[in-house]
Structures are given as C-alpha cells and as structure tokens.
Design brief:
There is one protein chain. This protein is of the alpha/beta class. It is built from eight helices and seven strands; from the N terminus they run E-H-E-H-E-H-E-H-E-H-E-H-H-E-H. It has a seven-stranded mixed β-sheet with strand order 3-2-1-4-6-5-7, sandwiched between helices. Helix 1 links the parallel strand 1 and strand 2. 42% of the residues are buried. The mean pLDDT is 89.
C-alpha cells in the first residue's frame, strides 16, 4: 500500500433486505469514497435492484448459500480485482457506518491484519436476547482459551481485513456462522487481530433466527467446526 492509497471494498452480504439495503448503500457512498459490493444471497425480493439503484456493485448468487458463502464470494471478488482491504458489514442496519474509519485505522497504520468491531467495548446500548448473550460468552471463552486473542465480541459481523487475509479467506472461509471459526484460522496464520469499539443497533428490518433451540444447535456445531479447524491442514 506504500506510495498509493489503498483500495478499499465494503462487502455487504444480503438476503431479503430490500427495505434496508438501498438506504445503507446510499449512506456509504455519500460518506466514503470506497467501492461497495452487495452479494445478493439468492433473495427473492428486490434486494438486488435496490442495491444496484443505490450505486452498489451487485453480485447475484443463483440460490441462497448462507452467510459464509456469501462473504467468501465478496473476498474472491476483492482478491481478483486487487483490493487491499475489505470491510464487512451487515445489510440490515445493525451496524453504524460512521464507525468504519475505526475498524480501518489499525490496518492503515500497519498495526493489525484484522480489526473486529466490538459492541461490548466502551459505552454500549446493545441488548441481545438471553440465548444470544449466553452464546457470545461461551464463544468468547472458547476463542480466548484456544487462540490467546483477547476477544469480547467473537460473533461480530463488522470487521476489516488486509490483503493476506483476503487471499486466505477467499480459499478458506467457514460456510456457516463463520465469525467464530475465522478466529482459529487467523490464529493459525499468526495474524495480528485487535478489537475496536463500535455501535450496534437492533435490526431495522426482519426477525432474528436465534431461538433457544437454535442457539444450542449453533453452539454445538460451531464448537465442533472450531476444534476441527484447530488441527485441519490447509493446502
């Protein structure tokens, strides 16, 4: 990145978010000079059209492949087109776009390879459901004990990564509930990861799929995947 401004891409995986995605893309384009990519994960509503009309680059996946696959598609796009940094945010209005400079700063300063926005650092108004908060605390303990990272928000979907991690994740990225698994991959690459405080709001549209039953299923599944990735070989 030395000598020339880094090329930055904001990646937004989106599924059935026609009511929020247009406003989010417009806000991003008004506030920042970065390219915006919406990966439309098989939506059957007007998510794709709304994002395109607002000025985003749009990739339409032929069917719904899940959050991990959609985000990995964004990494592959960034790799193939030579972007230096990817910022990943949600398309449902939960993340504060004004916090993007916070997650970029440590990478731009050469102090980190990955920066995760944490809703639990600093003053926060975030109030999650009991199953969600219990799951976050469980994964926080798992990640901290296994990797040595000091993590407060292991399920955050608001982060930035540099070029080496874009390259790696474009080949190897967890397919389902990927944020926790991504830590073990970073740890195995000896990447420098830090957290910065960000604001996170209740979703503007739609309904969370996290129920008590799904929270238990999620914890078992992600824990097994996490442990497998601890010993898995990457080609």
């Amino acid at each position: 990145m030395e000598g020339t401004p880094p090329r930055i891409l904001v990646v937004i995986p989106a599924y059935q978010e026609e009511r929020s995605i247009g406003g989010l893309v417009r806000t991003l384009r008004e506030r920042f000079p970065y390219d915006v990519l919406v990966v439309n994960d098989g939506s059957t509503d007007r998510t794709s059209e709304a994002a395109r009309e607002a000025g985003a680059i749009v990739l339409d996946l032929p069917c719904n492949i899940g959050i991990g696959g959609a985000v990995q598609t964004g990494f592959q796009f960034a790799r193939d087109r030579g972007y230096d940094i990817v910022v990943r945010i949600d398309g449902d209005g939960q993340h504060e776009v004004e916090d993007i400079p916070k997650v970029l700063e440590p990478i731009l300063a050469g102090q980190a390879d990955a920066v995760i926005g944490s809703r639990f650092l600093g003053e926060t108004e975030y109030r999650g459901s009991i199953p969600r908060i219990f799951g976050i605390r469980f994964f926080r303990l798992l990640v901290n004990l296994t990797t040595g990272y000091r993590v407060t928000d292991p399920t955050s979907g608001f982060f930035a990564i540099n070029r080496p991690l874009i390259e790696f994740y474009s080949h190897h990225y967890p397919s389902d509930y990927p944020e926790v698994d991504a830590y073990i991959l970073m740890h195995r690459l000896k990447s420098r990861a830090v957290e910065v405080p960000v604001r996170m709001y209740e979703r503007a549209e739609g309904k969370s799929s996290i129920t008590a039953f799904r929270a238990v299923y999620y914890m078992v599944k992600v824990t097994l995947s996490f442990l497998i990735n601890c010993i898995r070989r990457f080609g």
